[in-house]
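Researcher: Let's run the pair from yesterday's discussion. Sequence first, then tokens, for each.
Model: Starting with the first of the pair.
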Amino acid sequence: NNTVHETTTKHMMSSTSSTEPILISEWIHRAIDEAARTSKSLNTEAEVTMAADVHKCMILCSDEYLLSALRVAYSLADWIFKAEENGSIILPIPSSDWSDGIIVAQLYQATKIGGVLTENGDPENLIKAEFLPSLLNSEGLNEINPVQYIYSLGIVFYEIFSGGERPVELLKEDRTTAVGSVGFDPLPFDEDTPIDFGNKLDIFDDLFNDDNLFCEDEGQHLPKKRQTHQNNSHHTRSSISVEQLKAKWIPGPLCDLIANMLDSTNGTLAGEDSYKSMANVRADLQLMLEKPKIFLFDQDMGKLSVTGLQFRDTMFGRNAELSTIKEANRRSISGDGELVIISGPSGSGKSLLASEFGRYVSAGGGIVLSGKFDQLKQGKPFSALASAFDLYCGNLMRDSGPLRTAEVALKLISSLGKEVYHLARIIPNLAIMLGPSKSELISHDQEVCANPQKQLQYLLCQFVDVISSSFDAPVTLFLDDLQWADIASIDAVNQLLFTPDLSSSLSKRSNRFFFFGCCCEGGINEQHPLWSVFCHANLLHVKYSNLQLRCFEEDTLNVMVSETLRLSPRLTWAFSSIVYRKTKGNPLFVSRLMLSLSKNGLLRPNLKRRRWEWDEKKIQSQKLPDDVAMFITNSIEAQTEDVKSSISVLSCFGA
């Protein structure tokens, strides 16, 4: 055994530095002690009066212990998964005593295991677990149902997350039976071809009447080795309950994961949620590590039973497009000049993608100006731009304080002089920023300008320069619904992107400015004002990108449904397939449909199971319109007359 331990130790330490490997039972005790010492959720003063079992439960459900234990669990599932995929690696013999032959070591290398990171994305000291060679199937027992490995590992997980305790059911049953010539605990086996003893009491009658049990071997009839199938006898595994884990306040999703690993009887999957492959176990553990707030911790199902389904402001399936915009922005503010247009059908997530990018820019210290064109205000020049600058001025006064706000106001007056009053007329919050200075500028309003629109275009460009220099930060302008853009606003964008020089030809602007916008699919053609921006970009060899968003593929939609319901993707696939067929993968349609199903009770929280459940047959039978616009229209028509009247009035104000 010492030689085996030394061999395994050398293997674990060959590619990276690590602590001395220890048996998993010892690791559990050390991890509990470490979590008790470092956990921020445990109050040392309260520990004195706290019962020992209560204190241990608090440690087991602490973030410190849970995440460390999850890394060990993931490492074991990953090891078995890769061994199954490889085919040439010897797997451990299924047993209820795997814990006696598993060792754990702490690795000190800033790398990933299967891409597993903590939620904030920082690599941590990694934990690696492996099986001792004494557990491996050296005798070549190959015909083993994968369920047995899942079941055996489920018992290990039970012990890890219970703090080293064995399931009560295993402590009670007889564990002396061996299977064939290989000594290991009887586990559930495949019942595809079970032995049928019928009503006969003498099993030898069947044995000798079965010619297939014998073969020629050196002139003697010797029995073939045959996989033993457990019937409902005293050797059958009793089901293992995870109620003791729940009593220790272990998160419900983790208890469900372990229960689904143990949920088998004689190799037959007993529940529809039971695991069928180690790949699924590994994938679910990885989700718990990467997104614990979504997949590890419990939902407040009591609250959700009152509020119904809630959608978070989360972007799904657009990471490639987001990366493209980020790269274009980086090149643009570095001086290369670039613009991006996002197009796609209604409800495809254009505005949400833009909002995600806006948060990225703000988090990096950039300035974001955001406006939206309105079909009802096409005749009002600069409406979207004025709205964007007004929102910025309001945020500036709220977030930067009076001194910083006054500093920006003084720079505007210094740069634009009395002409700043023209901006104050279309930007109400700028008028508030200017304060007492505004009254000194009123008299300037009497002066007549030959071309007021050109003047406002120039002033808006100067405004961008002032706020960029005041905060030493690049400025990003986002305009939504560009298909409704007015000519004056697009001319201002043109001037922000390209500056006329002394020879009246166009050149790139030198300031750090990036423009991107959204429009509906097919909303911009050669007659649209924005077309001139594209032409100028081509003349100056300025790159522009047109990102065309499509509706979700079925797997992406399932990710959206999975994270919204906070359930494993393997559990939501059937529901997602129904939603996909009805919505064609339109993100807005998906969210509206799911909210409607929640409102009508077809998608509802189960307080006992502490998870969402749904009625597949009733959802499939629902007749829905072909597009999201008609679905929303029908939803409005279903409202009371008072509500519909209020909506009609509000619609007159525009977006």
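Model: Moving on to the second of the pair.
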Amino acid sequence: FIGPPTSPPRQSVPNGSRADDPDTLSADAPDSSPLSNGRNPSADNMKTELTFSARKSSNSEMKDASSTKTPLPVAGTPENDTEGKAEKEDKKPTEIEVVFTTAFEEAETPATCMEKIKAIKRLYWALYVVTTLLAALAIFYVENNSAQREWHLLTGYAWVCLMLAYGDGTPREYFRPIDETNTDGRKFYAFWLIAMTSFVSWVMAKSIQNSSKLGARYGMLGGLAYAAWFVGVFTTGVIIYLLRKQGYYSLPDFINDRYGPLATVMFELTVMYRLYNEVWSNTIVIADFFGESLSDTWKLAAWVSMAIPALYTLIGGMRASLYSDALQAVLMCVLLAMTYYTIVSQIHSNEALQLYAKEYHESDSLWSYNPVKGRVMFSLEGGMDLFWTGILQGALSYTFMDPALTDRAFLASKEVMVGGFALGGALAVAYVTVFGFIGVYGNMLGNCVADGFCPATDLKGATAASVKGGEPSAVATVLGPAYYSLICLVIITSAISTLDSTFSAVAKAVGPDLHGFITKGRPVNPSEADATDVLLGRLAIVVVGICGTLPLLYDPDELNATTVTGTMVPGLGPPIYMAAFACLVSQAWSGRRTTTKTRPLLFLLPFCFSAALGTIYQMASQAENCAPFKLTACAAPGWLATPTCATYSTYYKCVRASGCWDDSDNVQCLAANDTLTNKLGSCNLECAAESRYSTVVDLSGFNVGQGSYKNLFGVNLVSAVGALCMFLFAASDDLLEKRLEAAKAKTDASNALEISL
């Protein structure tokens, strides 16, 4: 260690021990020692080697020793050498010898420190000026070329986040700026920072877009059903709190310690796949506000929306992500509140819309509007199947594969963290539920126009199908130019807040986790990361950012299927939450391993079971990259009060374009064509198209209920229960081994007793 000449030497504490543990060896450097006698040994760069003996003591002996300070002997003097020899001869086997080699360098003067501080401040001011000039040039370019006004939002957003990113660039600040050691004294600050970052880091742009679409399909329950996934924010905080009580500093550290290197590799591969998907799934939502799919402005918006969070996370890492998250959380809540107020005002000012909604959809309130009159809202058919799917995935498994959230659960002290995650989870559930009302309003107005009760001018140029399907950009068009920019800013905020969390997670996964695993045989504590970890993390941000955006440039629709990864990872849950709660049952099952024996089967068996079942589900239900959420925007004619031939034609064209067309759709289309022909006189639906795919795997036996997501819910239920059973089956080996060892010990004791008798 390097420090002023009067600094006492810091003792090294064995890994896993506490400095105040009576069993931990310690020694006090006295005021009368040669290290604190006023001399300046750094004048000639002197190196001093201190050699002394210490032994384990009882609590009373430690108290006696602490009240009497004895000068530390300096090696090299005859008398001290004699005392050392005598002490070595008399010491017991429990005694050990500790050697400190301490290098002293001349302490910097206050003037030198101030000069360094001024130089750093000058550098920051230079960066601030350059960033501001670049932002001004971008604004000038947008104005000069009469570009879309939303480019100003991206420019201003980039400027603010970059200004927050400049600061301390040490590895510790880059990966873990708040931990157990620096939370005391600023618990209030740490609590709100953790609450805000746990709230916004998982509220993705794709999440709120899906919430809006589901609101159009199921009403208020649609947004609530999607918000069910965000219950996982709270459960993640509780489970990781229990893991941190056992001494773990990251999920890879826990998995490597309990389940071995193969399980760690499998987990890290899953994590990287998830992070890769988060890049394109968020940039595509922002790009949709800047032009038609695959247009030049659409592509540019996708690249810019990726580059902004990548750049400021590249500079500041986790610290920059946390500061920007706090700002983004406040901005998101304020903007959504304004949007909700505007929607309610527009409904109350439109009498035709109110009368239509009350007559054909039970209510004109956003909270009780029913897209399909007569359908029970809180039923499996009304969306509860998706709600329970969200509870299963979110609460038990889905969050564990996303380090954008779990990394934050290892920040601050564990007590502060669990409270912050509880508040952040509540905010996330509320936010996603309320955002679904945008889709509810869109469905209400779109149906009103399509059924002829409201004038087409109410759509203000948006297509009825898009508005009725709850597309945020289409509903924003209906609200007017100002609110189009407002909702665009909400989308930008949620997307970029998720992307910066993604990139900070990428840096940690490649730096301390993978680099430490390869070089040291274990994931490194982010608080102990070095400059190499930072460099590798920054390179990983660049690679993942580019690779995660490139696929959007040629076929974004085919990638949509990969977002339904939650069906493949329920197996991640049992190895984590069972080990976390085991410490509440028995102390023998808590803490780090005390032997060299790992249990990889406890992780691999449930993980591979769920991954295999999820893969089969994907192949069976969405070959050619069909995904259930694609059909949400198709606006099934059954939603309308008076379906026509044109609405059915539009619907089946949308189904074919989504890649979800199968034999059952063809049969339904032919039946609808016959019914409409008999009712209207003529209707020529295009039903002759061949199926885009066929499946040889039938998972209909897993169906639960009759809702649209009956198969998804059933497969996830089987996967979650099956994974837990697989974990318990593998864990039974431990229980049997302990039972057999106890029986053998009892038999041996009985035999020994018989022999002695």
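Researcher: Give me one sentence on the second I can quote.
Model: Confidence is low (pLDDT under 50) at residues 1-105, 557-563.
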